[in-house]
Amino acid sequence: MNAPVYPSIFIACPCSDNVGQKAPTRSRTSNDEIDPEEEGQAFNPRAPRSTFSLFPLENLLFCEDCNQVRCPRCVLEEIVCYFCPSCLFEVPSSTVKSEGNRCTRNCFSCPICFAALSVTATGEEQTGPFILLCSHCLWSSQDIGIDFEKPTSITTQLAQKLKAANASSAASLTAPSPDSLSAARPLSPLGAGGTYLRPPSPSALPPDQTDEAEFGRLKAHYNQQKALASGDDYGGSGSLSRLMGLYSSNSGRLRSYGSGALRETVTARNKSEWRELEQLRTVEDEEDVIEKMKNAGFHGTTSQTQRIVQTHSPRLLDELRPLAALLRTKRSKRCRSCRHILVKPESKVGSIRHRIRLVAGSYIPQISISRLDHTAVNYNNLQPGSTHQFLLTVTNPLYDPINITLATPEKTPGQYPATVYILCPEFEVGATTDVWDEALGPEAKANPKVAKGKGKKTGLHATIWDSGRNWTTVVLEIVPPLLPEDVELGDDDHIVKVPILVRSVYEADIEREDTIGKEGREKKEHSYWSVLEVGRIAKKRGADEEGVRPMSIMSTTSSTAADETSGPRDRSLR
Amino acid sequence: MPPKQVKGEYIETDTGNKVSRKSNILGSQNIILGGKTIIQADCTIRGDLRRAGAPGQHGNVAIAVGRYCFFARSSVLKPPGKTHRGAFSFYPMKLGDHVFIGEGAVVEAAMVGNFVHIGAGAVIGKFAIIKDCVRIEEGTVVAPHTVIPPFSRVAGRPGVVVEELPETAQESLELKQLYRVI
Ligand SMILES: [Zn+2]
Ligand SMILES: [Zn+2]
Ligand SMILES: [Zn+2]
Ligand SMILES: [Zn+2]
Q1: Residue A526 within any structural domain of the chain
Q2: This prediction's pTM
Q3: How many angstroms away from the CA of A85 is the closest CA of chain B?
Q4: Is residue A268 part of a domain?
Q5: What is the ipTM of this complex?
């Protein structure tokens, strides 16, 4: 939806072994010394599977026991509560089990544009009848001939309206279904059905009737199967009745129904049953459908997005029904490997507070990137072959100072590698001090531990650029590659992706259960792979218009850039 | 973020609000600013559109704004209005803390919670209710009377919830840093 923003930084969650790496180095515990040189293999952000393990820092949690980041894939979620996103009422889980996962109050969304529908009075002086009205596209329930006597319990009223409509049309119709069923079962406008089979001629039927008729037909079919199977030595009848009980009982409890005996029974039969299923599958009378679509015109038919969210997949706009709001959940999260709880939200629906919230940002050093010279570098137009200088800032969230070691391959992974150089890969970052110091403002900033004048912004080798209380900045140099003109390139090849291993070592107080004495310090360390998506490499002249290149040389503005790159090209060919 | 302003562009109030001299604030006696809120040039805030009839105990406030809010250039805040029992009236609009309103956005919500980002050019329909920790993307059109639950990312026309925001949303939507820059 949104165009990618450069630069952006992602962190690799190591939960899936050797993603983006050839050697399974991740099996080592974090206490082992990991020397990037010795490790040999850098994280490859271009490996196809890497996409699935790279996350922005904001989306990561942290497990203290495992000393590791946790991504959405390596946490277990438990539902704390269900609520309706529109009326914000909590729905008890027993109600969710019996009524389904949609709001049973007055919350509906527009079947045309999906905006929220509001209950609106059509009479004088705020009196009925009431309708569900979309204030975005002005669709209303009147468009499908439905209005309500009172402005409350819309779900119940809608169910009754649809049922009444069904009953009247069913009476005037030679219903193809076993009629005993169609009236007996209470109708749900929330769509308990969900299958796409249709009886032969449902065109005259209102939407819910098709569900009902179909249910009846299927039940009759399986009854017949059961009767046939009872005399069989396959023993399928038991499982069939269990299967049928599954759907006709209101308990909704899932019971296991044996080992695929149903399939065996069906295959054991001759083709007569299959014929009936095929008959069910024939979708409406074509002539009829064509006629209706001709009358409705293209603008009277549903789009795919409108169709798939409706349970009866209607073809025409006047067959659409208002959509009851889908419930949302609040969830707590656990570490998948040690089961410790990482996130526990307050159960109150409107609350944004958490009882427990272990997010990666408060444990691991954060890196950010900016341009050294704002005028020289355009993130969306990096010049191939020329050296770009960036500032890489490491921020420490811990209350202890940390020693950082940054490691990056000299040539980034990929077919067209960029050259990367970190001027000062080893440095210290001061501790995060109390919130009070921060509140006192920049005057309280002076931290005796961070030696003043350490960062003189010299840009010299092995010196940091600048530092503050809990952050340090170093210079990062990147030379984007020269992309060949005569080769078909993927979009990914145009983006400079730099993997950086961030390793932090620090001493912390030994955590004790009794919390009385603070005896001794222990050495701790953490390391993670991050990927900097620095920016796009500039398109050279005529890169995508091979044939007309001679003409475009004159008009292009980036020709100087192309000239500059001739040197590095020779170097890379060497 | 925004470039450094020319000195003297903002009038600073006792509670640290910085209001651009070029902003267009009507009915300022009906507007409450919680403090440390920044109002940029060409913003329109319609405090004059207050509840019709009896100016009772709460009848005077048209727009209440919390702390650390940021109203970017050309944004519009207008209390929602409707006809009730034959009489048209405006209803008060309440904004929480750390509310960012992007350039050119038009807000007619009844309530906006804390830590809400409304992208540039977005339109928030009448009587919409936006809860805490919500990010509304640029150019989104939120239909009138819509309720947006906490931890939602909203996009599209009409705006619908497209994603749940992570637990860190509050920190990423905080505006204290932005106030310091101006
Ligand atoms: Zn993971
Ligand atoms: Zn609801
Ligand atoms: Zn609509
Ligand atoms: Zn764990």
Answers
A1: yes
A2: 0.77
A3: 5
A4: yes
A5: 0.92
